[in-house]
Automatic annotation (TrEMBL):
Family: Belongs to the methyltransferase superfamily. RNA methyltransferase RsmG family.
Highest taxon in the source lineage: Bacteria
Gene (name only): rsmG
Name of the top EC class for this enzyme: transferase
Subcellular compartments: Cytoplasm
Name of the protein in question: Ribosomal RNA small subunit methyltransferase G
Main location (coarse class): cytoplasm
A Pfam family: GidB
Organism whose genome encodes this protein: Eubacterium ruminantium
One GO cellular component term: cytosol
Amino acid sequence: MNNLSKKMNINLTNEQLKSFETYYNMLIEKNKVMNLTAITDRDEVIMKHFIDSISVMAAVPLFGQLLSEKGQISLLDVGTGAGFPGIPLKIAFPDLKITLLDSLNKRVLFLNEVISTLGLTDITAVHGRAEEAARKPEYRDNFDVVVSRAVAALPVLSEYTLPFVKKGGVLISYKTPGAEEELSNAKRAIKLLGGGNASIYPYTLPDSDITRSFIVISKEKPTPKAYPRKAGTAKKDPL
């Protein structure tokens, strides 16, 4: 993993590499009794989960700029699942203050095991649906960066995520190629939810043909109180 991360100008210490190894072992062991990932081969997990998660630092210049300017940025990972991209980001960039949000309590319990075993600080796993958590004052309009990976199409994802982003912050969505069409379809939703400028950053993971597109959306004003709508509505009736 170290060789791959170095090709993205991300230098990991031996301690960080050990943390990734422990995380991999915990993931595979828990996956025997609980569906966390369909990818279990070690090299594939490293590339498609770990390297993919931290590649945002190489692909999106704004991410690194925010971290260097602020020293610490608050980051929310919506629909984190087995912890991607939030836990790899925390291991690689310890100064991030991270909240992991997932709707399945069994996954949150696993995430807490990982956090405890790795001795990570300034990272919290929260059980809840995005539509409900975004109504809570401690989360709404509160994060510098919100990330999401493989959760929903952008018109739906925008309603799940933009309410969490503070004014001046950004939503970063991990997407596959073809993001232009998703972004076009989401323009109305983005505007309604307080979003502003949007950019797409294509990226190919090192030593692979795996391509990724990052959609970065700025937050220009607070999300109207009407959003997000009640659970399930965004998926059934996208904005």
